[in-house]
Specification:
By secondary structure, this protein is mainly beta. 6% of the residues lie in helices and 46% in strands. The protein is built from eight helices and 70 strands. A hairpin with a 2-residue loop joins strand 3 (54-58) and strand 4. The radius of gyration is 35 Å and the shape is globular. The protein starts with a helix and ends with a strand.
């Protein structure tokens, strides 16, 4: 009795715990109020790198929330607004509604995507709040992408509280969005919020969300059927699968063509539809199915003993593929004479047909033609490829007085051809007469017998009248799917894994499948690139693919017992991923997969290395090269001569496959580092970093390429261990995106730029003169000159000091570079500004409030808009940094210390002369954003410098790796 009571109590506790499992997020500004019972996602308004991936404890694990905006979205699009000062709301949950995340769609940022990572498998209810206590009230839609597929809502209006009479002030009346989300436990779930209202007036230009609640639903019944409920065109060899109920131990599967039987059958009364009882797996093969048949199925979940409760499932249905499919792309021509609006195209364009395939009685929807001379009249149909043709459906001529006119065709001959040159006779047919009613459906079916044809010709022998004119209303061709279709990966897919398994939906009747695969498209087209022949519609391409290559493939479906024996498939394509991740650091969390449990550091191996941070999150989640995390690595030679972090692989890795040539990793330095010798070891074999040791002091991300040939003597077919180490020195690095590359080493070679197109050079050697001798600057305020990065630099106080240059700068393409050192200050601090006589910006380089760099290119010039690049590296730590900006004909690039910090497409030119340059302030006529610190060696070119030239200006002297 006690054991039973304890079991029931345990089950109740488990159920209650599961029922309370939820994630409640309040989107809040930094330092803002947070609603009770909610966790806060915190970011700073319009500061791009604060909108990070943030992790929250929920559902017994860590769930990560990541907001992103459209590609190249400027920070101004990224909203995190606190409305405390404008609060017009008097209802409950004020802390939830007082601030919100969203999009200012006047900028290039829409839509906002919220990615949910790490969500355990299951079904969840989503409820989000969308309300502004001030006046933003746009309209939006949501696209949810989860394990069930993709679905988009209708438009949803946002409420506001502007004005106590018109605004919503009670919590129950604000806008909410609710839906059901299904996670398979492996893939991210995304919600895409798209503003659908106009951007003018401004009150409708914002999407916003205050917060959301995500609750795991306790579902005891089976869910998420595959095939999906109501699915059509299901293959006849399909396998049933489903998501089990939360407490299910076994499953009973009912399947059949009778809805009543499947609905009412039980173990005691199986009715012939109980096809599996007591199985533990969540898939079931129902056996071969009939074509064009609707099937019903049900899964009952049986809980574990002692209760063994049976949870009856819903009845689902699907319909298998039809016997034949309509040919979609048909062109009709004729040798007869027709009026302009009565041509043969009317027979194949669906004109006059309604949704029930009933044809109108309007002559303008039909073909009507007269023969030319003594030549028999024909209408010819050209299909988009060769098909295995099943039937031709014919709607004869059908005007209201057809019984009197007799324009309909009566006797005709049918011919067919695969190439339009060699023709075969199918036979003579008699076409039934049209009914002359607008309820007319096709009443002649011509059996085409599965002939292989691209062309079909219908030659008129006689009609139903004596007028000498003949016509038809509509013709439709049905084909049997003999060719391979629905490839996986889908044609055009990128980043396919090199060990990909190719699959497709087999052509009906195929016995074997010939797979052609090559990087040469023509070889696939010509059928000279046979990769193999298989008996199932699956082909393992492992060993045949190389990284970074584009491939073409097709499948010819073969059955030697039929004529034709082979059906050639269309050519598909895909491209293989550029590299193989060794460790991208994305899988680590703060619970059961800790980064320092995989990368063993000095706490275990007695070296000077420390992996990760001492407090969660243990991985770096703001400064990343790719993805959402990178690995912090501290090194300290005071406690040990070397600092090493070692990863031992669970299974040996083969680094000789897929055309791999090099090992790559990215590292992020720090100016305060004391340099040491960086190295890696593979299976104990050490390779030293050959770049400048001072690169360890450089931000932002830098690539290190190691030729695998340098690991001579190592069995690269069985790599068991990888070590990242430093000998000597003290400091801190970030490591990210360790990968295997098929490329040879690519290097940037620093080279001094020629003075060609140098339109301004301010060395600040005690003055603001232009070394090109054309446009000297005017010093404003009382800056000083002190030791700089080269010679002297100008030192600005951040209060009143700046340099103004007047001129006429034509910059269809341009480059600028400078050295700077930030000596404090807050907010935006402008380094270089180029604008026209009206004060409208074209170029801006500034230190942001979060200490990152912003490069703005605004063309046409103006007071808003443009294209921005933001760095992830911070630059306001009192160290010297070099910044370079380049706009070529098609792209713009931001460099820090000679390394690419960001690049985007940009083909827009100013189209005018810019008359003003300021150094250290926003504009001479808008004295804001003063820069506090030192600036040196400012150069402006009206051409695009190369990476090597920017590197030289940044003080780099030795070649370094580049992607």
């Amino acid at each position: 009795m006690k054991k039973t009571t304890m079991l029931i109590l345990s089950c109740l506790l488990l159920w209650a715990g599961a029922a309370q499992a939820q994630l409640k997020i309040d989107f809040s500004t930094t330092g803002g109020a947070v609603e009770d019972g909610y966790q806060a996602y915190v970011a700073t308004h319009e500061v791009a790198n604060t909108f990070t991936s943030q992790t929250f404890a929920a559902f017994g694990t860590n769930v990560t929330i990541t907001p992103t905006w459209a590609a190249n979205a400027p920070a101004e699009a990224m909203q995190m607004i606190d409305r405390t000062s404008r609060n017009a709301y008097t209802g409950t949950h004020t802390n939830l509604l007082i601030d919100w995340i969203g999009t200012d769609t006047r900028q290039v940022g829409d839509p906002m995507t919220l990615t949910i990572s790490g969500l355990p498998a299951g079904t969840y209810s989503w409820l989000s709040y969308h309300h502004d206590v001030a006046d933003q009230s746009g309209v939006f839609s949501v696209t949810v992408n989860d394990a069930t597929g993709s679905k988009t809502t209708a438009d949803i209006g946002i409420t506001d509280s502007e004005g106590t009479e018109e605004g919503v002030v009670d919590f129950e009346s604000i806008t909410t969005f609710s839906t059901t989300i299904v996670s398979d436990g492996t893939k991210d779930v995304t919600l895409v919020f798209d503003l659908t209202s106009a951007t003018d007036p401004v009150a409708y230009a914002f999407f916003l969300m205050n917060g959301f609640e995500l609750d795991r639903m306790i579902i005891a019944a089976a869910t998420s059927p595959s095939p999906a409920d109501g699915a059509t065109d299901v293959p006849t060899d399909t396998t049933l699968s489903w998501t089990p109920g939360m407490f299910a131990a076994t499953h009973d599967i009912y399947f059949g063509t009778s809805l009543d039987d499947v609905e009412n059958a039980s173990v005691a009364d199986p009715r012939g539809v109980l096809i599996s009882q007591g199985q533990t797996g969540t898939t079931c093969d129902p056996g071969p199915l009939e074509l064009e048949q609707t099937y019903y199925w049900r899964v009952d979940e049986v809980n574990a003993p002692p209760d063994s409760t049976v949870v009856k499932g819903s009845v689902w249905s699907f319909t298998t593929e039809p016997v034949a499919y309509p040919v979609e792309n048909v062109v009709a021509t004729s040798n007869g004479l027709s009026d302009v609006d009565l041509g043969p195209e009317n027979v194949v364009n669906g004109s006059g047909l309604n949704a029930d395939d009933q044809h109108s009685v309007e002559g303008e929807h039909m073909w009507l033609s007269s023969p030319v001379g003594d030549e028999p009249l024909y209408i010819q149909f050209e299909l988009d490829r060769v098909y295995k043709l099943h039937q031709m459906l014919v709607w004869n001529y059908n005007v209201r007085f057809e019984a009197v006119l007799g324009f309909g065709i009566k006797d005709a001959a049918v011919e067919y051809s695969a190439d339009g040159a060699e023709w075969s006779v199918l036979g003579d047919v008699v076409l039934a007469r049209g009914t002359a009613k607008d309820t007319y459906t096709y009443n002649t079916t011509v059996d085409l017998g599965g002939v292989a044809a691209k062309y079909v010709r219908l030659t008129v022998r006689s009609g139903y009248g004596l007028m000498g004119q003949f016509g038809l209303s509509e013709v439709r061709f049905l084909y049997i799917p003999a060719q391979a279709r629905q490839p996986q990966p889908a044609s055009g897919t990128t980043d396919v894994e090199p060990d990909a398994v190719l699959s497709w939906r087999a052509g009906r009747g195929a016995v074997t499948h010939e797979v052609y695969l090559s990087t040469d498209e023509q070889a696939v087209i010509d059928g000279t690139a046979l990769a193999g022949s298989v008996s199932e519609p699956v082909f393992d391409a492992d060993g045949l693919l190389e990284l970074g290559r584009a491939y073409y493939w097709k499948v010819n479906e073969v059955n030697e017992a039929e004529a034709p024996a082979s059906w050639a498939g269309e050519v598909w394509s895909f491209s293989v991923q550029a590299s193989i991740p060794v460790d991208d650091f994305e899988s680590y969390n703060d619970e059961d997969n800790l980064i320092f449990d995989t990368w063993i550091d000095g706490w275990v191996n007695d070296t000077g290395a420390t992996v990760g941070y001492l407090n969660a999150p243990f991985a770096e989640q703001t400064i990343v090269h790719g993805g959402k995390q990178s690995m912090p690595l501290s090194y300290d030679s005071s406690s040990a001569s070397v600092s090493e972090a070692t990863c031992a692989f669970d299974d040996p890795q083969d680094w000789t496959k897929y055309g791999v040539k090099g090992l790559t990793l990215w590292f992020f330095g720090d100016p305060s580092n004391t340099v040491g010798q960086l190295y890696v070891k593979v299976n104990g074999k050490k390779v030293l970093y050959g770049g400048d040791a001072t690169n360890l002091q450089i931000k932002p991300w830098q690539l290190w390429y190691i030729d695998l040939a340098e690991f001579a003597g190592v069995n690269l077919r069985s790599v068991m261990e990888l070590t990242i180490g430093l000998e000597g020195g003290n400091g801190f690095l970030l490591i990210d995106d360790i990968a295997l590359s098929p490329l040879d080493r690519q290097s940037v070679v620093p080279v001094e730029p020629a003075a060609t197109n140098l339109v301004g050079h301010f060395a600040f050697e005690g003055n603001a003169n232009d070394s090109t001798g054309t446009r000297n600057g005017t010093v404003v305020g009382s800056p000083s000159f002190a030791a700089g990065r080269t010679g002297q630099a100008i030192v600005l106080d951040g209060i009143a000091d700046y340099v103004h240059v007047e001129g006429a700068y034509e910059l269809p393409m341009y480059s600028a570079s400078l050295w700077f050192r930030v000596d404090g200050g807050t907010g935006e601090r402008d380094l270089l500004s180029v604008y026209d006589s009206a004060g409208s910006h074209g170029i801006l380089l500034e230190v942001r409030s979060n200490a990152t760099l912003r490069f703005l290119h605004r063309a046409p010039v103006g007071g808003s808009g443009g294209t921005d690049i933001y760095s992830t590296a911070t630059v306001a730590d009192g160290a010297w940094y070099h910044a370079g900006i380049v706009r070529s004909a098609q792209t713009m690039t931001l460099y820090i210390n000679g390394e690419v910090a960001g690049t985007v497409d940009s083909a827009t030119e100013f189209g005018q002369v810019l008359q003003n340059v300021t150094i250290g302030v926003l504009k001479h006529d808008n004295l804001a954003r003063y820069f506090p610190g030192a600036i040196d060696e400012v150069r402006l070119y009206n051409r695009a410098l190369s990476h090597g030239e920017i590197a030289w200006l940044a003080g780099r002297t030795s070649p370094f790796d580049t992607p």
